Amino acid sequence: AQTVTQSQPEMSVQEAETVTLSCTYDTSESDYYLFWYKQPPSRQMILVIRQEAYKQQNATENRFSVNFQKAAKSFSLKISDSQLGDAAMYFCALLNYGGSQGNLIFGKGTKLSVKP
Amino acid sequence: DGGITQSPKYLFRKEGQNVTLSCEQNLNHDAMYWYRQDPGQGLRLIYYSQIVNDFQKGDIAEGYSVSREKKESFPLTVTSAQKNPTAFYLCASSIVGKGGRETQYFGPGTRLLVL
């Protein structure tokens, strides 16, 4: 069975500082995608960053980067220069390559607060 | 603008009533999805469709029904058989590439409340 675990229900960061959100997953597949989604108070799910498992290079999108450790099945999100608008729920998600094998599996989320 | 729209934003259901949530996309995506989110939880898949006139049950399909008559539209009906329908409902869509269904993009959601 595929699972995604986010062990930090809540995190807090000072504005302009850096924070790392943790995610571990389990899958028997060798090819898959990993995602971080952000859900602000408006509740719309917004894609933050995506990583293909076959790529060794960690994905980066502006202030957001990941640390993808395939052997350890770990996929953490680093937010640099945190801004007040980063405050939201963050969900880690797993999608096996070859779609019919499975669907997007979400963790339970980490609530990030940003202090001014 | 390309995107996914959901309506209504809020929906109230009376006991024994069926209600339909709308989801439309103009991204030319093949696949569409419905998720349910309960407080403090991640998303759970209700139904998905990879192609017009075909759809598959997700993890929690009981009490729900869908149709996919057009590529752009994937309405979800919450039937009276769904005993606990109060939740936030999110629709998503994605392309279907060489690797199957790929990155999903979400609509703004519909909040369903039972009167």
Architecture overview:
Helices cover 0% and strands 52% of the residues of chain A. Chain A is an all-beta fold and 116 residues long. In chain A, a hairpin with a 4-residue loop joins strand 8 and strand 9. Chain B has 115 residues and is an all-beta fold. Chain B starts with a strand and ends with a strand. The model of chain B has no long low-confidence stretch (mean pLDDT 91). Chains A and B meet through strand 5, strand 6 and strand 10 of A and strand 4, strand 5, strand 9, strand 11 and strand 12 of B.
Q: Key terms for this structure?
A:
heterodimer; A: 116 residues; mainly beta; four-stranded antiparallel β-sheet; 52% strand; B: mainly beta; seven-stranded mixed β-sheet
| Shape summary of chain A | globular
Q: Which class best fits the helix and strand makeup of chain B? A: mainly beta
Biggest sheet descriptor of chain B:
7 strands, mixed
What is the assembly state of the chains in this entry? heterodimer
Structure annotation, total helices of chain B: 0
State the largest interface.
A-B, 26 and 29 residues
Distance separating the two termini of chain A: 41 Å
Low-confidence stretches of chain B: none
End-to-end separation of chain B: 35 Å
Based on CA atoms alone, the radius of gyration of chain B comes out at 13 Å
Instruction: Tell me the radius of gyration of chain A.
Output: 14 Å
